[in-house]
Amino acid sequence: MEEQIVYLLKDRDKAAIRLIFDHYGAVLLNIIRRVVKDEAMAQDVLQDSLLKFWKNSGSYDAEKGSLFTWLTRISRNAAIDKTRTKDFRLSETSRTAVDLVSISDTVKQESDLDKLYMKQLIDQLPEIQRELIDLAYFQGYTQKEISDNLEMPLGTVKTRIRLAIKHLRSII
């Protein structure tokens, strides 16, 4: 499926965006939610990300990583960019206690097979790399935040995440 999406993206076929949304939308939305924590805003960021996928389709390079990695990086960066906007800061200050409900750790729209496959891939990593990948890509923490929270040098965090991604690329 990934190869088909890449081909359609390179060919500038709009079906690519539909396939990305159908196959990766739930995971990407979960990643975005962990950063912006507001459902409506997260959905807006996902829509913005879909447009970025389309506009930047020529910049995807399979040599540098998988399509999933590229999609998550763009989505996560879009979410982080959103937190730096004025409307985000205003919404955060007006948030009520009722709105502070934690977001589920599971994405219900993902198929059980996708969950199992992803878990099997990540389970092949050493414990510390699993933890860092979880914090960075599924919980939306920046590398600096991970470094501070785990009391680990920033360079070590970056190196271990890089090694984890390299390992995951080699087994995909």
Describe the structure.
- This protein is mostly helical.
- It folds into two domains: 1-102, RNA polymerase sigma factor, region 2, helix turn helix motif (Rna Polymerase Sigma Factor, Chain: A); 111-172, Winged helix-like DNA-binding domain superfamily/Winged helix DNA-binding domain (Arc Repressor Mutant, subunit A, Orthogonal Bundle), CATH 1.10.10.
- The chain contains nine helices and no strands.
- The radius of gyration is 16 Å and the shape is globular.
- The two termini are 13 Å apart.
Please specify the SSE layout and strand pairing:
Blueprint lengths: L1 H9 L4 H22 L2 H17 L11 H17 L2 H8 L18 H12 L3 H12 L4 H8 L3 H18 L1
Helix pairs in contact: 1-2, 2-3, 2-4, 3-4, 7-9, 8-9
Order of helices and strands: HHHHHHHHH
Q: How would you state the average pLDDT, rounded?
A: 79
At the third CATH level, what is the topology name of the largest domain? Rna Polymerase Sigma Factor, Chain: A
- SS field, number of helical segments: 9
Q: What would you give as the CATH superfamily of the largest domain? A: RNA polymerase sigma factor, region 2, helix turn helix motif
Number of strand elements: 0
Low-confidence stretches: 93-110
How many structural units, i.e. domains? 2
Q: Percentage of helical residues?
A: over 70%
How large a portion of the residues is in β-strands, by DSSP E?
under 5%
Category from helices, strands and their pairing: mainly alpha
What's the main sheet like? none
CATH class category name of the largest domain: Mainly Alpha
Radius of gyration: 16 Å
| Straight-line distance between termini | 13 Å
The CATH architecture designation of the largest domain is: Orthogonal Bundle
Spatial shape: globular
